[in-house]
Every structure is written in structure tokens, then in C-alpha cells.
């Protein structure tokens, strides 16, 4: 029998003994009066708190334990002559690290000046059967950490803090937009047409209506623009979206995204608002505007750069994206060792060139002047109609947000959708579908609109971690 099996057997025996003594090892409540953080500030006062026992050290006449709740950790002290003998005996016989307990006692300082609780009464609230991993030897395997994230959070307080920061990240964005007069809305997750982005959707079946539907690939882009048609002027949504694509440091299949839509504004207005929002988010989450991430040093407080799509590609690859032939572009991609699909569309080849160049840009900055072929939902630039009014946030060699002056010319939109349909028929699974209901809505008239979206990839870059590490419970294959 292995060590863990022995521990489990011993703890189950304790459970049986407790039940025989009519002691409920899983009571339904406890009147917790103080958090651990509050206890640490109540020197000389009686407290009543609860949490998980992390460690237990019995030195005979005195026993030291660590109690942890969501607010922090505190030392518990059981001492002969000062702790009731009954409580001391109960601790020694039935309690283990991992158990949840409620304690009552007085706050004092030990000889080593550590603020502690001298325990007068202890109540078992939940008996743990499996032992916690050892601090330095458990949960080293990445897959095990993801699969048992609850243990990862217990053993690594920095993980708990990261997810608190993630909540603050989204709340800061939400509060910022609300303060700017935006209305939070909810749009469908199940759609007849997977629109609003270029991505491969998940497909599922709707039994009641007996039809296949898609999980959304954008945060209600086409729905929110229909709201602009309806007369709303500032809307946003924060929610989950789904893309049936590859996994890497920057991509997940289901993740949280925010998108806003702002009537009577253009992409330049959006750039100003987004820069202000990003600085606000970094200040709230990190407490600073300067940080290092994925090998780049970033300062959001300095003047943001402006990068021209065509010029950046020409600078780093020598390719003139409007004149260089498709076969020449492939030769350059081969030379740069950039993967691409042999039968791919010419403009996807160009975008592969851009993604190579992007890694060379530190940022913070805005990428502008993208070709119309790579942005089927953006408004054309009035000064150069082969380009669109789009802006992408470039930080640390990657894209951390995307927005544009939304296309509101219904006939132009219809033609672009038709072109996307041809690409899909030719095998491009990422091409957008022709959403006829959206085109019909546009034909009733939509004002000038700036739209923008950012995903939790931004948070992962603020944390300097892969995006999967920043997912509380990432999707895992079932254990065999």
C-alpha cells in the first residue's frame, strides 16, 4: 500500500469514528465573524474565523497550525493549560492538513512576534480525505496543474492573486465604458450564421428547431451593429466566444472577449478611447504602465507609434503588397521560413508576411491602412479606397485589440460577403459567411460607427504568461 493510500485509509477511519460519536464531519454552516485579514488586526481581542488547515506541527505541549481563508493566512496555537484539553485532544486525534475548521480564540503575539490565535474552541467543518500536495514536490506537471486547478490555486497563492487580477481586468474595462456612456448588452451565443470575424466556428444541433447552429465567433458584432441601426449609439458586450482552431501561446478555443460599438465615431476616435482604456487597465491591474512581457519591454505611458501595414511589410521583407506577384510572395515566405497553405488566397499570403513583421514591433502602437481584402467589415479609406480605416493594437510583437470604422455601405458590404463566400467555397474555412439579414439591416441605414474588440489575450500579456495559463479551467482531454 502506497503512502497516499495509507493516508486515505486513516482519514476514512477518522470519519467513521466521528460519526459513531455523533459528530457531523460536514456541518451545513458556521457563524464566521472575522476574516483572517481582520483577525491579524485585532491584537488582544477575541475572534471567530474559519478556513483550511494548511500545515500542522505538534511539539508536545504546544501545537502550531496554519489557517488559510480567501483573505490570507494566520497561525493557530494550541497550548497546554491555555487551550482546553478537550479541544487539544480533538485536534490531535481527528484533524489533518486540508481540513476546513472554524476556530474561536484570542489574538496574541508569540515569542517570535508572530500574530496568532490562541485557540479556545475548534469545530470541524469539512474532513478532507485526500492529502494536499507537498509544497515543493506536488503538481509540477503542467497538465496536472490545469486538470486540478483547484489544487494549483491552493498550493500557489500567486495563482489565486492572478485570477483576482483577471476579474479586476474585466471590471475595469466594464466600468470604464459605462462611465463613458456605453450600454452593456447581451447578444446570442447560438447563431444561424457565424458572422463578425474570419474564423472556423463550432457547430452544434438545436433539437427543438431541428437545425444546425454555430457558436458565435465574435462578441455580437453584427448584432451590435443592428442595434446601431435601431438607434442605440454606444453599446458593448463582454462574454464568451468560440473558435474551432489551433491552440498556442496566444489562442484558445473558448475565451472571453469585449466588443464596443460607438455611433458617429470613426477609427481615429476609437484609437484615442482605446489608448486611454488600456492605460487605465494597466494601472488598475499592474499598478504601473511599464512592464516586461514575452521578451519585450513595454511602456504604455510613452507616445504610441503608428505603423503602416504596407510600409512595415516593405521594410522587413522587401515585398510591395500591391505589386508583387503571388509566386514571389511564396518565395519570400519560404525564405523567411513562414508556413502557409499552398492553395491559400493571395491576401492571406500577404497577411502571413505581416504576422512575420509584427514580431519585430515593440509598441505600443496602432497598425493602420490594411488592405480591404483582409478586412471585409471595415469602411474603405476615403483617400485610398484599396485600404480600410482599421486599427490594431500592437504591443510586444502581437495584436492585442482590433477596431475600425464600420462599413455602413450596404451594397459594398454585400459584394464583400459574396467574395468571402467564394473563398469559403474554395476551401477557406476561416472565410466569413454571407449574412443576408445583416445586409438587409444595413439597407435601412446605419450611422457612422467605430467598433473595437479585445480578448483576454491582453490580460495574458499583462501577466507575461501563455493565455492557457490564465484560463481558470482550460479545456482538457478526458483522463484515460
User: Mean pLDDT, nearest integer?
Assistant: 92
Q: Which strand order do you get reading across the main beta sheet?
A: 6-10-11-20-19-18-15-14
Domain unit count = 2
Which CATH class of the largest domain is shown? Alpha Beta
Strand content: 25-35%
Number of distinct beta strands:
20
Low-confidence stretches: none
The percent of residues in helical segments reads 25-40%
User: Given the C-alpha coordinates, what overall shape results?
Assistant: elongated
Under CATH, the homologous superfamily of the largest domain reads Bira Bifunctional Protein, Domain 2
Topology of this structure?
Blueprint: H1 3-20, H2 36-39, E1 46-58, E2 62-69, E3 72-79, H3 85-94, E4 100-109, E5 115-126, H4 142-147, H5 149-155, H6 157-179, E6 183-184, E7 190-191, E8 203-206, E9 211-215, H7 221-230, E10 234-242, E11 254-263, H8 267-286, E12 290-293, E13 296-299, E14 305-308, H9 309-317, H10 326-335, H11 346-358, E15 365-368, E16 380-381, E17 384-388, E18 390-395, E19 398-405, H12 410-425, H13 436-443, E20 449-455, H14 457-463
Parallel strand pairs: 3-5, 6-10, 14-15
Antiparallel strand pairs: 1-2, 1-4, 2-3, 4-5, 7-9, 8-9, 10-11, 11-20, 12-13, 15-18, 16-17, 18-19, 19-20
Structural commentary:
The strands form 5 sheets. The protein has an 8-stranded mixed β-sheet with strand order 6-10-11-20-19-18-15-14, with helices on both faces. The chain has a 5-stranded mixed barrel with strand order 1-2-3-5-4. A 3-stranded antiparallel β-sheet has the order 7-9-8, with no helix packed on it. A hairpin with a 2-residue loop joins strand 12 (290-293) and strand 13. It has helices at residues 3-20, 36-39, 85-94, 142-147, 149-155, 157-179, 221-230, 267-286, 309-317, 326-335, 346-358, 410-425, 436-443, 457-463, and strands at 46-58, 62-69, 72-79, 100-109, 115-126, 183-184, 190-191, 203-206, 211-215, 234-242, 254-263, 290-293, 296-299, 305-308, 365-368, 380-381, 384-388, 390-395, 398-405, 449-455. The chain has 2 domains: 3-132, OB fold (Dihydrolipoamide Acetyltransferase, E2P) (Beta Barrel); 155-304 and 363-470, 2-Layer Sandwich (BirA Bifunctional Protein, domain 2). The longest helix has 23 residues, at 157-179. 34% of the residues lie in helices and 26% in strands. Helix 5 packs across helix 6. By secondary structure, it is of the alpha+beta class. The mean pLDDT is 92. It contains 14 helices and 20 strands.
Amino acid at each position: 500500500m502506497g503512502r497516499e493510500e495509507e493516508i486515505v485509509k486513516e482519514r476514512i477511519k477518522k470519519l467513521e469514528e466521528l460519526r459513531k460519536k455523533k459528530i457531523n464531519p460536514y456541518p451545513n454552516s458556521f457563524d464566521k465573524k472575522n476574516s483572517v485579514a481582520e483577525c491579524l488586526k485585532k491584537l488582544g481581542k477575541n475572534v471567530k474565523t474559519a478556513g483550511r488547515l494548511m500545515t500542522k506541527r505538534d511539539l508536545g505541549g504546544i501545537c502550531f497550525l496554519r489557517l488559510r481563508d480567501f483573505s490570507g493566512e494566520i497561525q493557530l496555537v494550541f497550548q497546554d493549560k491555555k487551550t482546553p484539553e478537550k479541544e487539544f485532544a480533538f485536534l490531535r486525534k481527528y484533524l489533518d492538513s486540508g481540513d476546513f475548521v472554524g476556530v474561536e480564540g484570542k489574538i496574541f503575539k508569540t515569542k517570535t512576534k508572530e500574530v496568532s490565535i490562541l485557540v479556545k474552541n475548534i469545530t470541524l467543518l469539512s474532513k478532507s480525505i485526500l492529502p494536499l500536495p507537498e509544497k515543493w514536490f506536488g503538481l509540477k506537471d503542467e497538465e496536472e496543474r490545469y486538470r486540478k486547478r483547484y489544487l494549483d490555486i491552493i498550493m500557489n497563492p500567486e495563482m489565486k492573486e492572478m485570477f483576482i487580477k483577471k476579474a479586476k481586468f474585466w471590471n475595469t474595462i466594464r466600468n470604464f465604458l459605462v462611465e463613458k456612456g456605453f450600454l452593456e448588452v447581451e447578444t446570442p451565443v447560438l447563431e444561424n450564421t457565424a458572422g463578425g470575424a474570419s474564423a472556423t466556428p463550432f457547430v452544434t444541433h438545436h433539437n427543438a428547431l431541428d437545425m444546425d447552429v454555430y457558436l458565435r465567433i465574435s462578441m455580437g458584432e453584427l448584432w451590435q451593429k443592428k442595434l446601431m441601426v435601431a438607434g442605440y449609439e454606444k453599446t458593448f458586450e463582454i462574454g464568451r466566444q468560440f473558435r474551432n482552431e489551433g491552440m498556442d501561446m496566444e489562442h484558445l478555443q473558448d475565451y472571453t472577449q469585449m466588443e464596443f460599438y460607438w455611433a458617429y465615431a470613426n477609427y481615429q476616435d476609437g484609437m484615442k478611447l482605446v489608448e486611454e482604456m488600456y492605460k487605465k487597465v494597466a494601472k488598475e491591474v499592474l499598478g504601473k504602465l511599464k512592464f516586461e512581457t514575452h521578451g519585450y519591454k513595454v511602456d504604455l505611458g510613452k507616445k504610441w507609434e503608428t505603423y503602416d501595414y504596407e510600409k512595415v511589410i516593405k521594410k522587413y521583407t522587401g515585398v510591395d503588397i500591391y505589386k508583387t506577384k503571388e509566386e514571389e510572395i511564396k518565395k519570400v515566405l519560404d525564405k523567411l521560413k513562414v508556413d502557409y497553405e499552398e492553395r491559400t488566397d493571395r491576401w492571406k499570403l500577404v497577411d502571413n508576411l505581416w504576422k512575420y513583421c509584427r514580431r519585430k514591433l515593440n509598441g505600443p502602437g496602432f497598425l493602420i491602412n490594411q488592405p480591404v481584402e483582409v478586412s471585409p467589415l471595415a469602411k474603405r479609406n476615403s483617400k485610398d479606397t484599396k485600404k480600410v480605416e482599421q486599427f490594431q493594437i500592437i504591443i510586444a510583437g502581437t495584436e492585442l485589440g482590433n477596431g475600425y470604422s464600420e462599413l455602413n455601405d450596404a451594397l459594398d458590404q454585400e459584394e464583400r460577403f459574396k467574395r468571402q463566400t467564394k473563398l469559403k467555397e474554395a476551401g477557406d474555412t476561416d472565410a466569413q459567411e454571407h449574412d443576408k439579414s445583416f445586409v438587409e439591416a444595413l439597407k435601412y441605414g446605419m450611422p457612422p460607427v467605430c467598433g473595437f474588440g479585445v480578448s483576454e489575450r491582453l490580460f495574458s500579456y499583462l501577466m507575461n504568461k501563455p493565455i492557457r495559463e490564465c484560463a481558470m479551467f482550460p479545456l482538457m482531454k478526458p483522463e484515460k
